[in-house]
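Page 42, continued from yesterday. The earlier attempt failed because a stray header line got pasted into the input along with the sequence. Redoing it now with the clean sequence only.
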Amino acid sequence: MNFAAGEKILVIGLGRSGQAVVEVLRGRGVEVYAIDEKPRAEIAQTIAQIEALGARYVAPENIGELEGLNCAVLSPGVPLNGPLVRKIQTANVAVYSEIEVAYRLCKAPIIAITGTKGKSTTASLTRHLLRTAGKDARVGGNIGNPLIYEAVAAPPESWVVAEVSSFQLETIRSFHPRVSVILNVSADHLDRYHSMDEYIEAKYRIFANQNEHDVFIGNLDDEILALLHRHSGEARVRAKQLWFTIGDDSRHATMYVRDGALTYSPVTGDPRPVQIARPEDSALAGQHNVQNVMAAALAALAAGVDPRDLREGIRSFNPMSHRMQPIGEVDGVLYVDDSKATNPGAVIAALRSYDKPIVLIAGGKPKKTDFTELGRIVDERARALVVIGEAADDIAAHVYRTPIQRAGSMEEAVRAAQSLAQPGDIILLSPACASFDMFESAEDRGQKFADAVLGSPAR
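This time it went through. Structure tokens are written below.
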């Protein structure tokens, strides 16, 4: 597949990524068709936009009328095992992911980053470290900016940092990053996967096409990932392995914490350890973010950045929106927006990042994840819990000692949290769930939290 003029390609799903694929393929002269399972009236504006580009919308009930397709490109939000995709596969049409198409059109090397939590922060920090060191770098993928836009625009001397989800990795074929990173693996998206093993295997596809000339970066502190370490006897990773740990394991890790500093043991050249930065140099809070910083630093080093150039990049990077982002302080209470924390592991990491009492706002659309461990940590670290959304009762059922209130809207949740908080506390929005039961997106959820906070009068 050349994804060029003369080919006939179907784009499945007209979200942000699907629209980007339509635009790029039409720009290359491809005959593009697009399909989406949402009601036509709901996506009428999007249909008008793609048809203005010369693409044709096909209603799901008319999918059987399409003939002569060279392939289909699947948006990440569309299940691979859904009825629409199955119909297309039954017709012997190959299905590719957006990141596969982006890879095939990209002239620059790719750094691909995945993990259950921390992907967006690490991808953005990696780009920042590369740029601070004077390299041209772009970021796209699951972070919200479609990867295909950055891939087609990047010159060969650039680096493209790709945040990739398990959904996007499901349908890769030749996707071959120069550097792959897995930050961590914990239970998530079990509403899409039949088992945890299936979810893990989707993540592992990130290094499936790498060879000995590439680099794989892994988290030695993650029990699942540690099994991939070359000393474990596992031979699945063919790339050069670089590992990080928040411990002092210099024998097995390339980057670790020693004497209070992030320390790098060069894999070539002068073997003497190099102090990169101290955790407090970073504005990112929590031990999980120390791991994210180490992963990004190793990715930058794999891309040729001098270790001496990393500290300034680490110091000058600011937290991203909706990821443990301080919103403001009212009556001595700090408000933190962590709306992008859509699984229990991310919320647990956030709760462990602060040494102040926390009033947690959590809940939303569940993803068949287990809230047992989250409930235990809430009981250990939270002053109070406010639950919202479809998962409210499920989360509350796993909390035994912490006071709980229920709320029917974000504004109501903020008011409830304010009634429970004391000066010096933190009110933390960290939902552990998807947003689509009450909000348009995680960003919309975070914005409504900020609006409720900043629009509230001082008490």
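Notes: The two ends are 62 Å apart (CA to CA).
Reminder to self: strip header lines before submitting.
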